[in-house]
Structure formats: structure tokens, C-alpha cells
Design a protein that fits this description.
The complex is a heterotrimer. Chain A has 11 helices and 2 strands. By secondary structure, chain A is mostly helical. Chain A has one domain: Orthogonal Bundle (ABC transporter involved in vitamin B12 uptake, BtuC), CATH 1.10.3470. In chain A, a hairpin with a 5-residue loop joins strand 1 and strand 2. Chain A is globular and about 65 Å long. Chain B is an alpha/beta fold. Chain B has one domain: P-loop containing nucleotide triphosphate hydrolases (Rossmann fold, 3-Layer(aba) Sandwich). Helix content of chain B is 35%, strand content 26%. Chain B has a 6-stranded mixed β-sheet with strand order 6-7-8-3-9-10, sandwiched between helices. Chain B has a 4-stranded antiparallel β-sheet with strand order 2-1-4-5, covered by helices on one side. Chain B is globular. Chain C is mainly alpha-helical. Helices cover 74% and strands 1% of the residues of chain C. In chain C, strands 1-2 form a two-stranded antiparallel sheet. The radius of gyration of chain C is 21 Å and the shape is globular. The chains are: A mainly alpha, B alpha/beta, C mainly alpha. Chains in contact: A-B, A-C, B-C. At the A-C interface, helix 4, helix 9 and helix 11 of A face helix 5, helix 12 and helix 14 of C.
């Protein structure tokens, strides 16, 4: 009994690590640029397909492929912000929403045209995907889920350091504090936003790698990832990266507990727990703003 | 002090600033020579702030020419203007409240010419900031915030500082300190444009002044050579 | 524009509108079943567009979850007509009622969020409704279920007659939606919302309780969306979570249509939805590219003219085709009545 409870909680926390990875990039862009990227989940899926091509066509190890992809997604985020999303900065809700909705549709349908509707999973990580560690006789931890959670923690630490201890980080926080003031003193908000979106691109690639290793994905998986990410960000409290990690873990536990009783209810329980917690505590667990 | 004739540091000609159809600044001519303190006085809504913002490339659409050190900067982005040596101390101070004092100051260095003063020298100038260096700027008093705003501008190593209403909402004793500091800054050879509602303070410290009325220059001159009644007449219009 | 005078252009637009209404009224005699089916789709999508426009264009509620109420209407209609054995005609208004009831708890969540967060929040709520619909016993779970033949035959024993009945129901729904929304926008509440959209201070001077007006609009749209869901079910003869709660069909298309046509006007949704059907007729063989083209088109339109195609037309037209316009005079009058609360301040 105790073993079962411990096992469910443990698996939930591990799943939460993956959800936190989905959410960290979104958390960063919502905290800094105050906009919700509807295509966030689709970006993750898009990069997963890119990794799929690199690992299957070139036979690369998935982590080597990830390292190759990181500069590409950084540049992608930078250019996207600079040339498209920046046009919507400072305008009302509709324009950014519409642009990212349009991107979402374009990515989903473009992937459908290219890869068809089949589900895929990333391979090429060797025995990592099946290995597990026995904690006690009844409790096993998969090495991959553990690595996923540790990566999420490392990413939070890394983003936290970047924000609080680097020059770029102080520029990003300044722009998040007061865009107009940043522009007044000559700190070009457009450039800072573009760099921030480049960083989001890096987090998207990391999330894509671990999503592809941990679960199936197809061209229309993006919106589900977006909703999970959004829920983790709101649960954790806007602007708090540690909160986002906590939010992801709460959702992971909720889903795993739900699945323990009936796998068909896993997703609903996750959403319902989000809605209930949100009604009880709209500002989230660790609100910053 | 005697103003020696030299090439102007800033030469503004026929500058107009528009917000949609509204003309906030109307054909203003203004010059600042190196090391000069120039005050701009005028009633609320006379276009003083719009004028300062236009010089650093912010705010409404501009027409006319703005020359800084001989170069036409009217079409430059703000970052390039600040990098060339013009720093704005904006109205309301506009510090970044969640950043520490030191981080706010550091931003000035990052956007500026990367020379001149260091943060330590700014702390020498404003000793009370030194112990607050790790405090978020949003927790400082108004006077301390104004010091950080001035320090931030100084760290960008400006040749010209544009100060917008630095006395607003501050106690007279603190304003006295700030003005003393302004003169100290000026003695380092930094030109200063001072927008101020407090006419007597503005005229006391300035080498020359301009009076704005409804977006236009209604009067320009040297404070000591201009009678108070003349100033008031052009301040309020007649 | 080829028109020499604005009034001539206005006349042409009025004629086009009247011609369109005449065609819609005479459609049962003009078109075969296939044509009527397309027109029925047009009318239901028009209802969805009018509702999204009411929320996004006037009440400042940018929702991406309105497919929730379409799906709830569809499932409720099925529940009453096929499972509870209620008269199928009576099941339609009951479906509207269920949608309205479901809107109340949804509101509790939606109105705690703002702006873009509100948008994604509505999506989460819609997702929950969709997942729950897939768990309902008797409704075919995740794969859905067909409408019993008896229910369909209540609307006409032969297919041709059924198409005509469903078409007339859709026409009635669209007419009621358009007229009632028009009246709402011309009411005190509508004036307040328009004033708020154009200038928040002026709205304050009007004394309209904006929060209450936004709640009213949100609740207003639910039954109409539910009715559209019932008619869509009648036409498709089946319900299923992914089709009845389709975000692409009932929300994304609709947003694109309204934005392309012109958000915040009554003409815009009509124009945008009509254009959508014209494009679909020509580009349907493009498959998924069709969606991509629409998405790109709506982004281009909003970047060029935020008021959409109707905004472009409006530059040459002297007035609105469907005048919600006495609002301007009324708003201006109210502002004059309380001048101390509304003084335009020139930037300092």
C-alpha cells in the first residue's frame, strides 16, 4: 500500500519533470514578454520532427542531434521575434494571438503534409530508454524519466542564473519591468526580446528532445503540450521559473494519480486539478507579479 | 562664467514633434554648447518633455533637424544616440523597480559610451547609495531614486545630459543637494539641458534658458539679463 | 474602386445585401439539396462568427474556446432527442438551455483571467468539456455515435424535405442571432461596450457597468452557440468529441473569418464568412494548404488594416451598412453631459 502510494507519487514527480520542460520556455516568454505563444507546443513538436530526421536519416545519437539543433532553434527564436512577433509587441491581445495561432496552423499542416499523421518516438539513445533503477523491491525509477527531471531542474537553475547573474539577464528583467523606460534610456527592447526568444528556442529544443524520447508525438500533438505548459505556468505563478517546475510536478502527480485509478481519466484529472487549484489560488503557488 | 563661442554640441533647427495630428512641439530652434547648462521652462503641456524625448529618438514623429556634434541624429535609433553620448534622465525617474541599485546603474554603462565614470565614482558622488547597492530600486525613497537615475545617466559617460523634472515630488532640501550635484557634474564638462517647472531654480543654475509656450519658444536668453516680469509674461502667454 | 461617388458604392453594397437576403429567402426553390447543405453550413458558421465578434470585438473577451458550447449543444441535443426521447424540435431549445447553464461555471474561471491568459483559459475549459463528453455513457464515448434515424426523420421523411427543414432552421437561427445582437449593440449596454472599446474614460462617464455588460455578453453567446451545435448535429447526423468540439472548425476558422472580414462591426463577420465559402469553393482541392492560406491571409489583413476588409471598404463608404451608428451620437452626448470626467489631455 505504502509502496503503491510512493510509487505513484514518484512517477508523478518524474512525469512532472517532463511537463516542466514543456513549460519553461513558455514561462520565460510569458514572464518577460507578457505574451502567450499559442504555437509553443507546435514549436516543440516541430523540433521533435527535426530531431527525428537527424537521428533516423543520419543515424546520429539523439543527444548529439540535440546539440546540433540548439544553435538553430536559438537563431529561429531570435529571427521569429525580430521579424514577426515584434510587430505585435505592445499591441493588444488579438494580434499576437492571431499570429501565433496562424503559426500553429501552419506548423501542424506543414508537418502533416511532410510526415503524414503517424505517431513517432525518438530512438537513438541506446539502452537509456529502457534502463531502470530499483529503489526497493516494488519501486523502480526509469533512468530516462530521472534524467528528464534532472534536466528540468538544471534548466531552471541555468535560466535562474542567466536572469539574475548575467548582463543579458539584467537587461531582460529591465525590459520585463518597464519596456518604455528601457527604450527611453537606449536599451533597445526589440533586441532584448529577440535574444530572450532565442533562449526560449533553446528550451524548446531541450523539451522536444525529451518529449520525443518519453512519449509518442504526431503533427497535431502541439496543442496538448501547450495546454499542459500553460497550466504549469499559471499554477506555478507568472514569472517564477521554480513555480513553473512545481506547477509541472503538481500536474504530473495529478495525472499519475488519476491514471492509477483509470487510465482513461488521466488527462481530465490533470485539467480538473488545474482548474480547481486555479480557482482556489488564482495567483499561483509562487507569484512574482 | 563667460560662455566662450564654440561649435554647438547640440543644434536643433525647426524641430516639430507630432502625436497623430497633435503638434506637441512646433518649429523649435535650440542650441547647447559644450559644458553649458541650458534650462527649458514652461507651463504644463508646453512641449518640454516631448522635446527632450524627441532628441533621444523617442515619442512622436519628428520633422526638422537635430545635430549632435555635427552629425544629424534625427533618424537614429535611441541606442545609437545614447551610445554617441546623450543621456536622458526621464521624468518620473523610470528606474527598473525589481533590479538592484547596482544593476540599474550598470544598465547606464551597458547602453553608453563605455568610458568615463565607474560605479564606485558614482557612489562617491552619492554616498548614501553605496550601502543600498543590493537593494531593489523600487524600495528606495524618491530622492534616492532620483540619484540612481542621475547616476545611471552618468555611467553612460554622456557629453550631454537631458534632465526632465528632477525635482518633481521631492523635498526642497533634497532638491538643493541634487542641484548642487548637477553643477558638480557640469564642471566635469558635461552639457546639461534642464527641464524644470520650478522657474527660479531653473534660472538660478542655468547659463541660458528657453521658455516654451504651446510648443513654441516664446523667449530665449540669459537669466541674469532678463527681468522676472518678462519671463512670467512669456511663461503664461498674454 | 470603380465607383465614382461614395453614395453609389453604398447603394451597390445595400443592393448586394438585399440580394443576398432575397437569395437566402428563396433558396429552397433555387437550390438542390447539396446547395442547401452548403448554405446551411454558411449560416451556422455565420452565427458562430457573430458570437465570436460580439465577445472579441465589443466585450473585450478574446476566447479561443467557443467550440465548447457548440459541442455542448450538439451533445445536449443528442441526449434529449435520442436518449431521453424528447420531441426533436423541443430538443433544440433545450440544447441552448444546457449550453447557457454550462456557461455559468465556465465564467467563474474565464473571468478570473485577463487578456491572453483568458484566451488560453477558455481553451482549457473547452478541452475539459470535450474530454468529459467522451466519457459520457450512451454517447458513444471517444468515437461518438450516429443520430437515430427516427430523430432525423422527425425533420422530414425524405432527404430533400429534411435538407429544406434544416436549412430553414439555420436561416431562422441566423436571422434571430443577427437581429437580436444588433438590438443588443444598439441598447444602452451595447453603447457602453462600444464606448469602452473606443475610449475607456468615456465608458465610465456613460455609467454602464462594464463588468456586468461583459458577463451578459458571455452568457448571451452560449445559447446561440448551443443552437448552432444542434443544427450542425442535424446536418452531420452524428456526434463525436473531436468533431462536435472541433477547435479548428468552430473556433479557428471563425476567428480567421471575423478578422479577415472586420472585427468589431456587424458587416465584417458576414463578409468574412461569405468570403470563406467562396475561397473554399475554389481552393477546396488544396487540402491543408487551404487552412494555411487562410491563416496567412488573416495575419496579413490585420497587419495592414486592423478593421479588416470591411474597414477597407468603409474608407470609400460614407456609413455603416447595418447602422449600429446612433451609438456615436449617443456616446458623444453622454460625454458632453459629464465633461469634467472626459478631457483629452495632450501629451506633455
Amino acid at each position: 500500500m505504502i509502496d503503491t502510494i510512493a510509487n505513484v507519487l514518484l512517477q508523478g514527480i518524474l512525469l512532472g519533470g517532463l511537463y516542466a520542460l514543456f513549460a519553461l520556455g513558455l514561462s520565460f516568454s510569458m514572464g518577460v514578454m507578457r505574451f502567450v505563444n499559442i504555437a509553443h507546443g507546435d514549436f516543440i513538436v516541430l523540433v521533435s520532427f527535426l530531431l527525428l530526421v537527424l537521428t533516423t536519416a543520419l543515424g546520429l545519437n539523439v543527444f548529439v542531434a540535440l546539440i546540433l539543433v540548439l544553435p538553430v532553434t536559438f537563431a529561429g527564436g531570435f529571427l521569429l521575434q525580430r521579424f514577426l512577433l515584434q510587430r505585435a509587441a505592445g499591441s493588444d491581445v488579438l494580434l499576437p494571438l492571431l499570429i501565433t495561432f496562424g503559426l500553429s496552423i501552419i506548423i501542424q499542416n506543414g508537418l502533416l503534409q511532410t510526415f503524414g499523421a503517424d505517431s513517432h518516438v525518438l530512438a537513438g539513445a541506446g539502452t537509456l530508454q529502457t534502463a531502470s533503477i530499483a529503489l526497493t523491491s516494488g519501486i523502480y525509477i526509469g533512468v530516462l524519466p530521472l534524467l528528464t527531471l534532472l534536466t528540468a531542474v538544471a534548466l531552471v537553475l541555468g535560466l535562474d542564473r542567466l536572469l539574475n547573474y548575467t548582463r543579458l539577464g539584467s537587461h531582460i528583467r529591465a525590459v520585463a519591468d518597464d519596456v518604455a523606460a528601457a527604450d527611453l534610456i537606449g536599451l533597445s527592447s526589440g533586441r532584448v526580446y529577440a535574444l530572450a526568444m532565442g533562449i526560449v528556442g533553446v528550451t524548446v529544443a531541450i523539451a522536444a528532445c525529451f518529449m520525443g524520447l518519453n512519449m509518442n508525438f504526431d503533427p497535431t500533438s502541439g496543442p496538448d503540450r501547450l495546454l499542459i505548459a500553460f497550466e504549469a505556468v499559471v499554477l506555478g505563478g507568472l514569472g517564477s521559473l521554480w513555480g513553473t517546475l512545481a506547477g509541472g510536478i503538481v500536474l504530473g502527480i495529478a495525472q499519475t494519480v488519476g491514471a492509477h485509478f483509470d487510465t482513461a481519466w488521466q488527462l481530465i484529472i490533470g485539467h480538473v486539478v488545474f482548474l480547481v487549484l486555479f480557482l482556489l489560488r488564482p495567483q499561483g503557488l509562487f507569484p512574482k507579479y | 562664467m563667460v560662455i566662450t563661442p564654440s561649435a554647438p554640441l547640440l543644434a536643433v533647427e525647426k524641430l516639430s514633434v507630432f502625436y497623430d495630428q497633435f503638434r506637441a512641439v512646433d518649429s523649435v530652434d535650440l542650441t547647447v554648447t559644450p559644458g553649458e547648462i541650458v534650462s527649458i521652462i514652461g507651463a504644463n503641456g508646453a512641449g518640454k518633455s516631448s522635446f527632450l524625448k524627441a532628441i533621444v529618438g523617442q515619442g512622436g514623429r519628428v520633422a526638422g533637424s537635430i545635430r549632435f556634434d555635427g552629425q544629424d541624429i534625427a533618424a537614429w535609433p535611441t541606442s545609437r544616440i545614447v551610445g554617441a553620448g546623450i543621456a536622458l534622465v526621464p521624468e518620473g525617474r523610470r528606474l527598473f523597480p525589481t533590479l538592484t541599485v547596482e544593476e540599474n546603474l550598470r544598465l547606464g554603462w551597458d547602453v553608453g559610451r563605455r568610458g568615463g565614470m565607474t560605479a564606485e565614482e558614482v557612489f562617491d558622488l552619492f554616498p548614501m547609495l553605496r550601502e543600498k547597492r543590493r537593494v531593489p530600486a523600487g524600495q528606495l525613497s524618491g530622492g534616492q531614486q532620483q540619484m540612481v537615475a542621475l547616476g545611471r545617466a552618468l555611467l553612460s559617460d554622456p557629453r550631454l545630459m537631458l534632465c526632465d523634472e528632477i525635482s518633481l515630488g521631492l523635498a526642497p532640501a533634497i532638491v538643493n543637494d541634487l542641484y548642487a550635484l548637477l553643477e558638480k557634474i557640469n564642471r566635469r564638462g558635461i552639457g546639461i539641458v534642464l527641464v524644470e517647472q520650478d522657474i527660479s531654480r531653473a534660472l538660478n543654475v542655468a547659463h541660458r534658458f528657453y521658455c516654451f509656450l504651446e510648443g513654441r519658444v516664446s523667449l530665449a536668453g540669459v537669466p541674469r539679463a532678463t527681468g522676472r516680469e518678462t519671463v512670467m509674461k512669456h511663461y503664461f502667454g498674454s | 474602386m470603380a465607383f465614382r461617388s461614395p453614395s453609389l458604392a453604398m447603394l451597390a453594397c445595400r443592393l448586394a445585401l438585399l440580394g443576398g437576403i432575397a437569395v437566402l429567402l428563396l433558396a429552397p426553390w433555387l437550390f438542390d439539396s447539396e446547395g442547401l447543405a452548403v448554405l446551411t453550413q454558411f449560416l451556422t458558421l455565420l452565427v458562430l462568427a457573430l458570437m465570436w465578434n460580439l465577445l472579441a470585438g465589443y466585450a473585450d473577451i478574446i476566447t479561443v474556446g467557443q467550440h465548447a458550447f457548440v459541442g455542448i449543444g450538439a451533445y445536449a441535443f443528442y441526449g434529449f432527442a435520442a436518449l431521453a426521447g424528447v420531441n426533436p424540435y423541443a430538443a433544440i431549445p433545450l440544447a441552448a438551455l444546457v449550453a447557457l447553464v454550462a456557461a455559468v461555471p465556465a465564467m467563474a474561471i474565464v473571468f478570473r483571467l485577463r487578456a491572453a491568459y483568458l484566451a488560453v483559459g477558455t481553451w482549457v475549459v473547452a478541452q475539459v468539456f470535450m474530454l468529459l463528453a467522451g466519457k459520457l455513457p450512451g454517447f458513444g464515448f471517444g468515437s461518438g455515435v450516429s443520430l437515430p434515424i427516427a430523430v432525423a426523420q422527425a425533420f422530414g421523411t425524405d432527404p430533400a424535405g429534411r435538407y429544406t427543414t434544416i436549412y430553414l432552421l439555420a436561416l431562422g437561427l441566423a436571422a434571430v442571432t443577427l437581429i437580436s445582437t444588433w438590438l443588443l449593440l444598439r441598447s444602452r449596454i451595447g453603447i457602453g461596450l462600444t464606448a469602452m472599446r473606443d475610449n475607456e474614460e468615456a465608458a465610465g462617464a456613460l455609467g454602464v457597468n462594464i463588468v456586468r455588460a461583459r458577463i451578459l455578453c458571455f452568457l448571451w453567446t452560449a445559447p446561440f452557440l448551443g443552437l448552432a451545435g444542434a443544427i450542425i448535429t442535424l446536418q452531420n447526423l452524428r456526434i463525436s468529441p473531436p468533431a462536435s468540439f472541433s477547435i479548428i472548425d468552430w473556433t479557428v476558422f471563425v476567428i480567421f473569418n471575423v478578422v479577415i472580414g472586420g472585427i468589431g462591426t456587424l458587416e465584417g463577420p458576414i463578409l468574412g464568412t461569405a468570403l470563406f465559402f467562396v475561397l473554399r469553393a475554389y481552393f477546396s482541392d488544396l487540402g491543408t494548404w487551404h487552412l494555411i492560406i487562410l491563416g496567412v491571409l488573416s495575419i496579413v489583413v490585420i497587419l495592414i488594416e486592423p478593421r479588416g476588409l470591411w474597414g477597407l471598404l468603409r474608407r470609400v463608404l460614407p456609413g455603416d451598412l447595418i447602422p449600429v451608428s446612433h451609438r456615436r451620437a449617443a456616446a458623444a452626448g453622454a460625454v458632453r453631459a459629464a465633461p469634467e470626467r472626459f478631457e483629452p489631455q495632450p501629451p506633455a
